Amino acid sequence: MKFLESSRLARVPGLVHGFGQRVAGTREAAREAARATFGEAGAVFFLRQVHGCAVVSPPWTEPPDADAGIAKERGVLLGIETADCLPVLIVDPIHRRVAAAHAGWRGTSLRVAQEAVRALAREGSSPADLLAALGPGIGPCCYEVGPDVESAFGEAGSRFFVRGPGTRKHLDVTAANRAQLEEAGIPAANIDAIALCTRCRPDLFFSYRRDGAYAGRMISVVGFSKSSPS
Ligand SMILES: [Zn+2]
Question: Torsion-angle region of residue 84: left (phi > 0), alpha (psi -120 to 50) or beta?
């Protein structure tokens, strides 16, 4: 399994992370491949993602219904599964804890990335210290949505909708999450994005819009290695 890296997060000592590319096989096989890749750094905990905004903290044996996690210890890694939705990785390099979120249009309209920042802040993290990386997701080139989606974002969110070739608008889910992270107090210079569209790049990614209900999932991982100094 090949992983794309954020240059911003790659500079954090002891941190491991990556946005996984597509691999053949079942979703469980993809999880196993990710666990194997990061096995030396720690255990990867996955969620049962439900397009909500709940934030949970591992360890667990059965994945809880949630779309964001925070990991407070070395060796505890978070895994997010996507196929068009945006994986959001957030790192506190000072206190050495991380958060990860799954943000499709529903999760973004519920501000799941901000909930993740808030959960870190409750543990004592300062948003001004946080770094964030937005992974590959469906781009504004391809993310045509209906008026119900725009209304879910309210008037303040209308700036994230752009004109498409037809009558329906396109959502820029990366821009919306970037804005939410900045609003939560993360400096703009600390936010990195992998600017690749999952639907435009079948060579690299699965895409729910392109591949349909049987699309596989990419896996994104973040956490501090168990061998890193505390
Ligand atoms: Zn595209």
Answer: left
CA–centroid distance, residue 60 to ligand 1 (Å):
36
Q: What residues contact 46, with CB distance under 8 A and at least 6 apart?
A: 31, 63, 79, 80, 81
Please tell me the distance between residue 138's alpha carbon and the centre of ligand 1 in angstroms: 6
The confidence band for 230, taking pLDDT boundaries of 50, 70 and 90, is low
Question: In terms of DSSP bridges, do strands 131-134 and 86-92 run parallel, antiparallel, or are they unpaired?
Answer: antiparallel
Q: Are 12 and 131 in contact (CB under 8 A)?
A: yes
Residue 74, CB-side half-sphere exposure with 13 Å CA sphere:
14
What digits encode the pLDDT tens for the residues 29-65? 999 999 999 999 999 999 999 999 999 999 999 999 9
CATH of 3-224, one of 3.40.30.10, 3.60.140.10, 3.30.450.40, 3.40.50.2000: 3.60.140.10
pTM check: above 0.90: yes
pLDDT in tens, 122-173: 999 999 999 999 999 999 999 999 999 999 999 999 999 999 899 999 999 9
| Cα–Cα nearest to 68, from 58, 54, 81 | 54
How many whole angstroms from its chain centre is CA 114? Answer: 12
Dist. CA 162 → ligand 1 center (Å)? 13
Instruction: Using the mean position of ligand 1's atoms as its centre, give its distance from the Cα of residue 223 in Å.
Output: 29
